[in-house]
Amino acid sequence: MKRNLLNQMKKEWRDNVWLVIELAVVCLAIWGLSVIVYVQGKGLFIPRGFNPENVYSISLKKVPSGSPNYIDLGENAGAAYRSDFLELLRRLRENPNVEAVATHWGAIPYNYNYDGRQLALIDGQDSILYFGNTRYGSPDIVNVLQLNSLTGKSRKDLYEMLQRGELLIGNNPNYEESGRNPRDLIGKKVILGGDTSRIYRVGDVIEQVRRTDFEPGWAGGYIVPLVGGDESWGSVAVRVKPGKGMQFKEDFKSNADLRKLRNVYFSDLKSLTDIRESCQRSVEVDIRMKIIIMIFLVLTIFLGLLGSFWFRIQQRISEIAIRKVCGAKRREIFARIITEGLILLLGAIVVVGCIVWPFIGTFENMLFEKWTIFLAAEAFTVLIVAIGIIISLWYPARKAMQIEPAVAIKSE
Predict the structure, then answer these.
(1) What integer pLDDT is reported at residue 155 of this predicted model?
(2) CA–CA separation, 104 and 44 (whole Å)
(3) How many CB atoms lie within 10 A of CB 370?
(4) Whether this model's pTM surpasses 0.85
(5) Which of 163, 56, 61 is nearest to 100 (CA)?
(6) Pairing label, strands 116-121, 55-62
(7) Contact 287, 371 (CB under 8 A)
(8) What is the Cα–Cα distance from 26 to 46, expressed in whole angstroms?
(9) C-alpha angle 91/257/74, rounded to 5°?
(10) DSSP secondary structure string, 43-111?
(11) CA distance 337 to 316
(12) Would you say 189 and 126 are in contact if contact means Cβ atoms under 8 Å apart?
């Protein structure tokens, strides 16, 4: 029967070539969309490395000298600025709704911080440099973001490491793929970005703090400590106690002493969840649109295949009837029809593979993905299209076999 099927398909090669081309275009579209959706959305299944709930961002600002509210402090303006800022931080920490307060620069996620630097050992040789996103934060940034150690250290331990001026580094997929382990850097002396004026010691490895929920985190990251005088600059991040968000916002709005002291004041109070929603809205819309396009494409394919295969089977009603009269079982007829459709799909996959796989190295570099992801997406595409073909063939074939042989071959 297989030989007869192949001979029959060879005789109908013109129609089959067009079907193979149609299936190849469909497979190429679904394959590409599935890879793109996976790359954009896989970050949702990776640990964030922080907890955005109950966290608020506050901007630090100065009253301009030309403002009528400006207080002239003379030569003490610089020292007063620092002391006033630290006093406002103290008031924030004493608020009954507040759990932790930290100063930072670029440490809060959802801000697309592009300050990236390379970490290099100074007490050893390593040809593979650790690259990461740089985040500056006072020791309390550990408690505000609720950072997690990958070596079992507590947040108190992480806090004390930053207090001592040590770096916290995140796990780095690129570094690990090069055969290195970030944990081997713990305790080593390093410099950042080639700056030899300041030497750091690596304290611990933490879960990578990604810039967004969708970012896969292909690089690493550092928490650079702001201690001593460095702690008196940057923005402010506040973690409020669970269920106390509304009370804190009311206090911040109504209590001027919590917001302003002479020429220094806080403004732009925003929750990290609101910042996340604003930052990721375009990405979420883009992913939803691609998923809708894929679903629409699959449905369109299903209807197109149903129409094409219905027409083909209608032309073979008499052939099916003759096979039934000659003793062929329904299962055998079904198997023959579905096998023909799957052979056409196999031909389409071969065509698509010849087009895509020679350039797979370029796609790997573009998307920072391994070839196994493209292979998995191809398998997913084959499965989806195969299911569509089986359904498209099963229904018209079932209808054709319900026709009595005498009626089916009457015209013959």
Answers:
(1) 93
(2) 25
(3) 12
(4) no
(5) 56
(6) unpaired
(7) no
(8) 30
(9) 100
(10) GGGS--SS--TTEEEEEEEE--TTSTT----GGGHHHHHHHHHHHHHHHHHHSTTEEEEEEEES-SSSS
(11) 10
(12) no
Collapse the DSSP code of 211 into the 3-class scheme (helix H, G, I; strand E, B; otherwise coil) and give the result.
Answer: coil
Residue 91: which of 233, 248, 235, 275 has the closest Cα? 248
Number of continuous H segments (helices) and E segments (strands) in the chain: 14, 11
182, 175 in Cβ contact below 8 A?
yes
- The string of pLDDT tens digits covering residues 256-279 is 888 888 888 888 889 998 888 888
- The kind and range of the H/E element at 135 are strand 130-137
Where is mean pLDDT largest: 247-251, 276-280, 392-396?
A: 247-251
CA dihedral sign of residues 188, 135, 244, 43:
negative
The answer to whether 183 and 151 are in contact (CB under 8 A) is yes
- Distance, in Å, from the CA atom of 394 to the CA atom of 400, rounded to the nearest integer, reads 10
